[in-house]
Amino acid sequence: MDIGSITNSTLLLVMILLSFDSSAKNIIIMIGDGMGISYLSALRYYQDVNSDAGTTTIFDTMGVGMIRTVPSGKFKITDSAAGGTALATGEKTINGRIGMSADKRPLESILKIAKKNGMKTGAVVTSSITDATPASFITNNISRNNNHEIALSYINEAMNDHPIFDLLMGGGRKYLKNNPLIKKEIKSNEHFHYATSFAALNDKDHRPEIGVFSENGLPFAIDNRDPSLSAMTSYALKKLENKDGFILLVEASQIDWCGHMNDIVCAVNEMKDFAKTVELVKQFVNNHADSLLIITADHSTGGLTIGSERGKYWNPSVIDKIHASGDKISKALISSDNVTATWSKYCDVSLNEKQWREVKAFKIKNDQIGLRRYLNHLVSLTTNTGWTTESHTGEDVPVFAYGEKAEIFHGFYDNTEVGIKIKKIMMSVN
User: Under the phi-then-psi rule, with left for phi > 0, alpha for psi from -120 to 50, and beta for the rest, what region is 374?
Assistant: First the structure.
């Protein structure tokens, strides 16, 4: 063998070894809360009818597997606390637990491990930052309902200069400003930057940042959410840039909320917003070869079906004729002195006499929840959308992966394996 051949062989071997040893420095995990397979189908068929995008979605080329979502204990259908904890820690727990095992043992999340390894960490959500999913990645609590305790744990960690996060963004202002457990002034302090508007954030400030932009959850996407999930995510990707890498949680929290309300217009618009954010993150991964994107769901919500017992068809064309969530429309109608004008403001569809009588009957009773359900039911009838529940359902949910080490997420496995696999990736980096 001549010297040239030896040199070429050596270079090839080095390239193979480098490829084998390489790992993801930046990890972005995106969760569509409540996003079962049928929500992805709804997005696809909506796009096919209502835009030039056709039947291809941003998710299609990244699908790698499915995960089981059952929690531990007697419950067989998970909530977001148990589902989030499984994804964040790699361990099962019972419904309601935040980063804690069924026997109340604190569990270590991937964000906590990342922080120990010198990585930056962040969470961007459209719910409250104290809600079940983000809390499962950041803290430990016996109950997801303890929002004030969860908020206090965030502040205590930051005030002691040991924050689990470098950036938190979403809603939940009321759990900070009106928290009876928080005795310290949080608006102006040396430990972290607290912002109540998106414009007040500062990516040049090296302190951890908490941005809370609404009292509880942010508005629905169709109700003109500001800031958008993509705007917050874009800011986070810039803010968390770090030589040792970062891990970022991005949750499209309100896919689940629309599912609970059986509001297909709301749900499709949340999926559009999520898809736009996925496109942004995928481009980031394209531009940063040492990055990994994982997308999944904690469970599915609502028992959504594309089509129903009324026939083998689905008619999503009506979705673009409705310009607000059923929740916003029903609240506006209840408080309105002119229901026909209010209806025309938000909807380009007509109601018949019987339907108007029903609307006015709910208004007379001041029954906003009943009216919301009725309006969402009318839209489901028009589109031939099916729902089985206003709660969660227990089917398996999809996994998507893209970028460095995406191949290890291929297959069918338990939701705990997502957290376990991410931990292994971080161990191989550091």
Answer: alpha
Supply the DSSP string of 221-284, one letter for each residue. GGGT-SS-HHHHHHHHHHHT--TT-EEEEEEETHHHHHHHTT-HHHHHHHHHHHHHHHHHHHHH
Q: What does DSSP assign to residue 88?
A: H
**Can you tell me whether residue 307 is helix, strand or coil?**
coil
The residue ranges of DSSP E strands in 302-396, in sequence order, are: 305-306, 385-386, 392-393
C-alpha span between 428 and 147 (Å, rounded)? 35
User: In which residue are the tokens 């009216």 written?
Assistant: 371
Q: How far apart are CA 157 and CA 109, in angstroms?
A: 15
For 220, other C-beta atoms within 10 Å of its C-beta total 25
- Cβ-proximal residues to 1 (8 Å cutoff; 6+ apart), any chain: 9
d(CA 67, CA 350): 42
Task: Give the active site residues.
Answer: 80
Q: Render pLDDT for 156-166 as a digit per residue (tens, 0 to 9).
A: 999 988 889 99
Residues of the chain with pLDDT > 90, as a percent, come to 86
pTM (2 d.p.): 0.93
Torsional sign, CA 331, 336, 340, 341: negative
